[in-house]
Please model this.
Amino acid sequence: MNIEALIASTFDGLMLGFVFGLMAMGLTLIFGVMKVINLGHGPLIAIGMFAVLVMSQSLGINPYLTLPVIIVIGLLTGIVMYFVALHRVINSPELTTLLATFSVNMMITGLMTVIFSTSPRGLDVTLGSLQFGRVTILGTRVAAVVIAVVVTIALYFFLYRTRQGKSIRAVANNRGAAELMGINSSWVLGLSFGIGAMLAMISGMLLATMFSFTVLTGNALETKSFVIVVLGGLGNPTGALFGGIIIGLLESITTIFIPVSWVPVLEFVVFIMILLVRPNGIFGARSS
Amino acid sequence: MSTLQVTNLESGYGEVQILWSLSLGLQPGKLTSLVGSNGSGKTTLLRAVTGLIKPWKGNVMFDGKDVTKISPHEKAEMGLVLVPEARQLFTDMSVLENLEMGATPKAARAEFAQTLEWVYSLLPRLKERQNQLTGTLSGGEQQMVAIARGLMAKPKVLMFDELSLGLSPLLVINLFEVLLKLKTQGLTMLLVEQNVQMALAVSDYAYVLSNGRVDIEGESRTVMGMESVRKAYLGI
Model:
């Protein structure tokens, strides 16, 4: 082991962590607002990956310029998904909403397998690299971090500074009271789901610029999102960001010492430890 | 003509009927109280009127329109606003943010700044606390936020569910003084209270509910003097 490898992995992990955090924020936001665990999160990430693939390969658009389109597709897909699959069962027990979102997962995964098959894909994107001594930082990772951070800041600005964003927080806090104040909670829930889906798709797009992927990659990332969300505390976006960074660091630093195939094992060991020791997550509230 | 008119309303939960052909009306600019013991159907009536539960039979007229089947958020938009029992504040948000959420109806949004100034003048304590999370306030201050949040909607009719619950007698008197001030400004209000003596003392007109029906109605002063009311609710 040499010190350069450690520094490089730390940087790598930190940058990857921001994207993981963004990805998990989508899941945790939806849970925080409507107490629904979105089992359709993975396919939404995959849609982001394939949307950027199709647009850059078939239409020749620069992958980073697809961001606005991905944002719109994400919002719309999420809002439609909410009103088609979730709205009628939103007050049902958890199992019903789990099944509803899981069936959306199956449908999207099935459909995408038919269209794209499950063979690995990759984007042809290079942004050069930064060199610090013997440590190399890839331009794609820097770009991904910048986008992830900007999106996170925009999300917080939206939630804390705009009326729509505040009504999302109000509905998350007390849906009945929000209705009594004249807030159309159905619309707010749909919008929140749209934002959650949008975050999943943006992270999918960013991850597609870094790794090769298949239709099924989204589902692997969904389980990773669960680990991150539980690490950071369910329903807590800031926690998800820190959880993402922890998992990103864990993932890239441990690969210096152990084979890559062991990383998921390690992640789930951490997951189970957290559930046993601090079920509300490292950054979650201590109560109950 | 009354602003809010409930006619032959029946409702309940699941198979259990709570309200039995209940009728009542609010006179514009008056403070009406609805009193009765625990379980007499007061809260259920408010839930049916706002649309949080579905009325089974009968209708609710507001401002000349039939609003029986309209959802709570649309009623709030029209100006029929409830200050709910146990306050139901947005506890993770600041006082000011709670007030902003109160001003959700379009008409209220347009006049936000003036309404906020007026509400702060009625409840000056809230101005000092405006950036504090409502979850960290005392019970009395939280009740003030709940009233203020309701007022921010610029309601035509404001309804209060169990305003006095869990508050010290002195605080209750302070809050009722605010209601009297609002009455002199012409606001139509419905006060649903377990604290019968207080409610009858401040209101103009009163309905006494018992087993989901209107048992007695009349001028509050008259109702307070009734032998049966004194025995059953006032313990005199």
User: Anything to note?
Assistant: Residues 5 and 135 of chain A are 7 Å apart (CA to CA). The longest helix of chain A spans residues 3-34. Chain A touches chain B through 18 residues (CB under 8 Å).
